[in-house]
Amino acid sequence: MSRPYERKSASRTRVIPEAKDQWYALHVLSNKERRAVENLKRLFLEDEEMGALNQSEPLVPTEKVEEVRNGKKYVQERKLYPGYVYLNFALRRPDGSVNNDAWYKIQAVDGIISFACGRSKEPLPMSRKDVKDLMSEIERRSEGARQKIVYNVNDEVVVLEG
């Protein structure tokens, strides 16, 4: 009989996606996402081996937010996930082992704190479902500018539905 406080065995092996489908979430300094992306690009340009492992541009998901201030309409870009950069990078080999050289070089880039990898110490690629959800969210948010609605205390609100 299993008790609720007993840990399940970690015998489940995680399926490592192919090199072209390996997406990683990098935890970066907040409000320094653009600089971290520039530093990553510079690393990929300078190091030929690292450039060969890179599958696409580092990704900082954003959305456009429309706001009205003093009677003027302003559109600004806002990060969907502040503090994170997404990278399509072949960090794991087909046998599941990590390319330690590339892993350490990415972590040494200025502005990057670590890989977002959960409980394990090694970076794990995002699951296909997570990547699909991320891409659909980026697609949905890029369709048009979203209205930013600001409510203040004592503002009157009229509920039209629900």
Report on this model:
- The chain has 162 residues and is of the alpha+beta class.
- It has helices spanning 33-46, 48-53, 100-107, 128-141, and strands at residues 23-28, 62-69, 72-79, 84-88, 112-115, 146-147.
- The strands form 2 sheets. It has a 3-stranded antiparallel beta sheet with strand order 4-1-5, covered by helices on one side. A 3-stranded mixed beta sheet has the order 3-2-6, with no helix packed on it.
- The longest helix has 14 residues, at 33-46.
- The mean pLDDT is 85.
Annotation field: number of helices: 4
What's the SSE pattern?
Answer: EHHEEEHEHE
Helix content: 25-40%
Radius of gyration, CA atoms, in whole angstroms: 20 Å
Structural class: alpha+beta
Specify the biggest β-sheet.
Answer: 3 strands, antiparallel
Features:
162 residues, 6 strands, alpha+beta, single chain
Quick synopsis:
With about 160 residues, the chain is α+β, with helices and mostly antiparallel strands. Helices cover about 25% and strands about 20% of the residues. The strands form two sheets. A three-stranded antiparallel β-sheet has the order 4-1-5, with helices on one face. Strands 3-2-6 form a three-stranded mixed β-sheet, with no helix packed on it.
